[in-house]
Every structure is written in structure tokens, then in C-alpha cells.
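Journal club prep — side note

Before the paper discussion, L.F. wants everyone to see what a predicted structure for a comparable chain looks like in C-alpha cell form. Sequence:
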Amino acid sequence: PSDPRAVALRSLFGLLAMSCNFYAMFALSLVQFTTLYLLQPVLVAVLAPFLLREPTRRATYLALGLGILGSLAILRPDT
């Protein structure tokens, strides 16, 4: 991005994500942590348009939603 504030916000979110990652490593089971770790880029892609006001197409939201639902199905296959 050409706006330095957007770069700073992304860096701040990255720091926050890594802090949460290390906390989750100690607090969750291995399966839960692995799923959450692999889902992290999807969650960043979902939040970035809202927090950084980035333009995003509707098809992107559909794809991200399917990714989140698939991850939830892995975590809770019985429901």
C-alpha cells in the first residue's frame, strides 16, 4: 500500500496475531491450534477490508466464508 498508516496497521495486526498465536499454542489442543494456525490468513483476509477499508469483491467473501466453514467442519465433524 502507498499509505504508510496501512503498513503500520498491518504490522500491528501481525504483532497481535503472533502474540495470540503463542498464547494459543499453550492453551489449546494440538488439533485446535493447528486448525487455528492454518486459518489465520483467512481471518486476516476477512478483517482487512473492514479495518483498512480495502476494496474487496463479493466472490472473495464467499470463498473466505467457505474456508472458515471447512475449518469448523474439521474441528467439529460431529455437528
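L.F.'s comment for the group: The helical segments are 4-27, 30-52, 58-75. Keep this in mind when we get to the figures.
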